[in-house]
Amino acid sequence: MTFPAWSVQDIVAGRPAVRVNQLGYVPGLPMRATLVSADVDPVAFTVVRDDGLVAHEGRSAPWPDRPEPTSGLPVHVLDLGALGEGTFRVEAPPSRSHPFRVGARLHADLRDDALRFFSLMRSGTEILVPGYERPAGHRDTAVPAWTGPDAQRLYPGWHDDGTYDVSGGWYDAGDYGKYVTSGAIAVWQLLGILDLVPRRGDILEECRWQLDWLLRMQVPPGRPLAGLAFHRVHGTTWSPVPGWPHLDPTERVLHRPSTTAALHLAAAAAAGARHFRSVDPTYAHRLETAARSAYDAARLHPDVLAPDDHARHGGGPYDDGEVGDDLYWAATELWLATGDHAYEVEVLRAAEHASDPFDAAGFDFNDVSAPARLDLALHGGGLADHDRVVDSVRDGADRLVALQAQQPWGQPYAPADGWGWGSNGRLLNNLVVLGVAHLVTGETAYRDAVATGVDYVLGRNALGQSYVTGYGADHSHHQRTRQFGHDLDPAMPPPPPGALAGGANSVPAPDFPYDTRLVGLPPQLCYLDEPTSEVTNDVCVRWNAPLAWVAAFLTG
């Protein structure tokens, strides 16, 4: 396998040849690094404390594939030993790594910053966080359902002359759209952090902000497609880049309700009801009622699907032609929240319940059988085949561990057909699968695999760059966003600490302009930390959510 030598060399130039987790490592968990070197024999290296003392000496393990296919680079793997707490560098002359720390609660700040990102993404409210102050934007208290020729072409036969209060919620990504099928899985994942760190009031508050918006997106009784949820809300054209939300000149509209949006609302609201029941039973009842009615409406309207408009009308389509996995997820969360036998029957008879939901490419909004299976493993002890459910999680995790062992960078993600948009989010979702496998089996190998896998996101990758703003000596901080548009308008703030970049993207999307600067590069190198690279350097609540979960898991 060969790649354009000039492009590989130019992209990695100036980065240390020793690639480490630039945040650091947890005592007692694996500590590994990757060395870029053309040497075919083992290379001597040392791990040196910040006071100059040598903490560990070793020899590298040359990787047999040269170049390694995901990066196009010749590499070695370094085992850094069992380091105690402190600050270190790896030296493999003539190269030195970036500094890193070893500490028991190393990921606590990352967890908190990854969660704080959601507060900064709030729509319709004034932001008072120092450095990120802004007036309320997009109050969305009286948004019309979309009408006109474009709406009729995209949604033939649908007409709704109402206006709706769809205020609140989170902006989805670097744009100002709010999307049910992206926002629901994000809030579900934040709720899941409560399984790791119970009684975190800040998490409940942030989840409530998004859940309230999801409830407002449900079509009320008496209106067309009542009980379903509007699929998305955003401008009829794309808003300017960059641009303050309160100055957005676009006309906001609601897109036709969809079956999948209703089912995602049902799943997230049911999960919310389960978590809120002990602290606010009245609110939990409201969530449960909405979840039940959304599920019933989806059953009544099983094929109202969101079409792919190729992002021509001011927002992403979030299209999904298969609803079986969405029904499975919604029924699962409703059964876990209510104990209602009717939902258990739906879970057990779903084709998705008998299938393997764990794809090495990682789950996402359009493939939600895995979230259902994870929650059944964690909370579905009364299910008739719960042992089989746990075994399926174990099997999925075992495959990810085996895949991870085949990667010199430690990531349990390496799709042969290319690394897709938001690869960092999908990779982190694979780490969530491994984390849940540890929680339900107690096996430390899965916990170790999570610790090793997060190294990739924090700097042990082909670029030698951490993908999380503020974390690492060399980190992403030029993400392509409207609201954190400092690169393009110095009056605006930069991306905040804890913001995750989408990551390497080697797969051009149909009918979407791909960054021609990336053509022909190995998958891991298909990333640019520039505000012009939407396909690799966007942010998204759906990616920051698993980052927060993994950081919480590793914090303990």
From TrEMBL:
Its EC number is 3.2.1.4. Residues 15-93 form the Cellulase Ig-like domain. It is an enzyme of class 3 (hydrolase). One of its GO terms (molecular function) is cellulase activity. Signal peptide: none annotated. It comes from the Bacteria. Belongs to the glycosyl hydrolase 9 (cellulase E) family. It comes from Cellulomonas humilata. CDD domains: E_set_Cellulase_N. Keywords: Carbohydrate metabolism, Glycosidase, Hydrolase, Polysaccharide degradation. SUPFAM superfamilies: E set domains, Six-hairpin glycosidases. Gene3D superfamilies: 1.50.10.10, Immunoglobulins (2.60.40.10). InterPro entries: 6-hairpin_glycosidase_sf (IPR008928), 6hp_glycosidase-like_sf (IPR012341), Cellulase_Ig-like (IPR004197), Glyco_hydro_9 (IPR001701), Ig-like_fold (IPR013783), Ig_E-set (IPR014756). The keyword Amino-acid biosynthesis does not apply. Residues 109-550 form the Glycoside hydrolase family domain. This is Endoglucanase. The keyword Membrane does not apply.
